[in-house]
Design goal:
Structural class: mainly alpha
Distance between the termini: 37 Å
Largest sheet: none
Oligomer: single chain
Order of helices and strands: HHHHHH
């Protein structure tokens, strides 16, 4: 059992760079379109105005590329946007270019 958990943990660690790399391959213009269609209404209901306050607040949840892509995946699943991984990468590229500026 301990071995299985160790293997699973190592697999997760090895996936983190791949997630960040997918963001780097995303198209921010496509990401903005996807974001505006699927994200603004929910974010605006929670943060007012156009919802962008979710990205600029002092206690924002994403502090690196891996966390940002994980948040996008979670939102995609929670709201049922139905995005494919490459679409998540586009949204990540848009958010990173516009708000986060992670290296």
């Amino acid at each position: 059992m301990k071995t299985i958990l160790s293997v699973m943990f190592l697999a997760l660690l090895s996936a983190a760079p791949a997630i960040a790399e997918s963001m780097d391959k995303g198209d921010a213009k496509i990401g903005k379109t996807l974001h505006d269609k699927s994200c603004i209404a929910c974010h605006a209901s929670k943060f007012g105005d156009n919802g962008n306050g979710i990205y600029t607040r002092a206690d924002r949840k994403a502090t690196n590329k891996q966390q940002l892509t994980a948040r996008i995946k979670a939102c995609n699943n929670n709201v049922g946007a139905g995005w494919f991984p490459e679409e998540e990468a586009h949204v990540a590229a848009y958010l990173n270019t516009s708000f986060y500026h992670f290296k």
